[in-house]
């Protein structure tokens, strides 16, 4: 199966996700948690939506903002770092924003950071004046430098940015960091965060004025439910009614609980949807405060 040749058929929604890489599997898993399923094509570039008219296009992450701008795809799952860089690039070339972040998705977390040799005593952005900074994010770095009023040279590299100082190509770098292990392996240290990033659902700067608008709304509602449910647990226990005032504040970020009277006197059974972490420690606190028969149940789906 191959995608329709033109973008004229506007009764299906087309979502671009990374073909392989860090965001590929979590993006698929999240969309599957929204009830989508696909028939795979043999070349695995286009997946035809079965349960809903929502198809997938599997591409390189860097292509996703452009595919949305060109109307080839309607939505995409991409790192905020890529989206903001390409938006910055468009605007620095005098073009309007054509895409924007619709939702943060809670995976693929990292930050775009400035890193300098470990031996430097970091005194602030002005220390970069006259220096060369290697990066794959020239628009975001230039914006930040301009904001700080620092005149430094941006050296564009497409990969292996972290070895640029050792190769004598630059004094500092601006790159994605998650654990920081790559930096320290190259005797560099992060000194400044430019952007906190994670995977986002990207869409056009405007909306859709045909049936895709309804499909996108449906998807967003399911996505919000799936994101909310992701860390949520149903907490159930029993307790004497007169202890409720002490127990309720211990529920981690809970929705108003359902409290049911038990047949045997003044006992209640309580269930609460908790969005905060239900840790062992929290369960022990609840038990000390009089809760009995504590049970934590994963939540499969939720529709507000
Ligand atoms: P592609 O072949 O699609 O171009 P890629 O090599 O550019 O893949 P990945 O390395 O898979 O992309 O990273 C995709 C996204 O994952 C990044 O843009 C970023 O948003 C996020 N990410 C999370 N942690 C990190 C990290 N430690 N290093 C790089 N990217 C990270
Ligand atoms: Zn890429």
Describe this structure in words.
There is one protein chain. Helices cover 26% and strands 31% of the residues. It contains 8 helices and 16 strands. It has helices spanning 24-33, 64-69, 80-92, 138-148, 181-185, 211-230, 244-247, 280-288, and strands spanning 13-18, 38-40, 46-49, 54-59, 75-79, 99-104, 110-117, 132-135, 153-156, 172-177, 188-197, 199-204, 233-240, 258-261, 267-274, 292-298. The protein is α+β, with helices and mostly antiparallel strands. The two termini are 36 Å apart. Adenosine-5'-triphosphate binds at residues 18, 21-23, 60-62, 79, 81-82, 108, 110, 176, 178, 197.
Walk me through the topology.
Elements: E1 13-18, H1 24-33, E2 38-40, E3 46-49, E4 54-59, H2 64-69, E5 75-79, H3 80-92, E6 99-104, E7 110-117, E8 132-135, H4 138-148, E9 153-156, E10 172-177, H5 181-185, E11 188-197, E12 199-204, H6 211-230, E13 233-240, H7 244-247, E14 258-261, E15 267-274, H8 280-288, E16 292-298
Helix pairs in contact: 3-4
The structure holds adenosine-5'-triphosphate (ATP) and zinc ion.
What is the highest CATH level, the class of the largest domain? Alpha Beta
Radius of gyration: 25 Å
Strand order of the largest sheet: 2-3-4-1-5-12-6
Q: Let me know the number of strands.
A: 16
Number of helices: 8
What is the molecular shape?
globular
Q: How many distinct folded domains? A: 3
């Amino acid at each position: 199966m191959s995608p329709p040749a033109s973008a004229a058929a506007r009764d299906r929604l087309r979502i671009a996700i990374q073909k392989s890489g860090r965001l590929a599997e979590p993006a698929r898993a999240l969309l599957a948690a929204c009830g989508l399923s696909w028939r795979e094509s043999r070349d695995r570039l286009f997946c035809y939506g079965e349960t809903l008219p929502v198809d997938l296009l599997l591409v390189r992450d860097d292509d996703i903002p452009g595919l949305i701008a060109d109307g080839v795809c309607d939505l995409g799952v991409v790192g905020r770092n890529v989206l903001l860089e390409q938006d910055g690039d468009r605007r620095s070339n005098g073009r309007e924003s054509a895409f924007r972040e619709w939702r943060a998705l809670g995976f693929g977390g990292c930050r775009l950071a400035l890193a300098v040799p470990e031996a430097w005593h970091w005194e602030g952005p002005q220390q970069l004046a006259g220096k060369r900074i290697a990066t794959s994010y020239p628009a975001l770095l230039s914006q930040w430098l301009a904001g700080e009023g620092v005149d430094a040279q941006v050296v564009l590299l497409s990969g292996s940015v972290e070895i640029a100082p050792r190769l004598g190509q630059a004094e500092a770098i601006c790159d994605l960091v998650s654990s920081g292990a790559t930096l320290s392996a190259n005797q560099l240290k992060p000194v400044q965060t430019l952007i906190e990033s994670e995977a986002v659902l990207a869409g056009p700067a405007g909306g859709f004025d045909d049936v895709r608008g309804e499909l996108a709304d449906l998807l967003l509602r399911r996505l919000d439910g799936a994101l909310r449910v992701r860390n949520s647990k149903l907490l159930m226990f029993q307790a004497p009614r007169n202890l409720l005032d002490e127990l309720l504040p211990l529920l981690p970020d809970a929705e108003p609980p359902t409290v049911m009277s038990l047949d045997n006197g003044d006992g209640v059974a309580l269930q609460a949807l908790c969005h905060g972490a239900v840790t062992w420690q929290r369960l022990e606190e609840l038990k000390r405060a009089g809760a009995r028969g504590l049970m934590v149940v994963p939540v499969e789906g939720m529709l507000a």
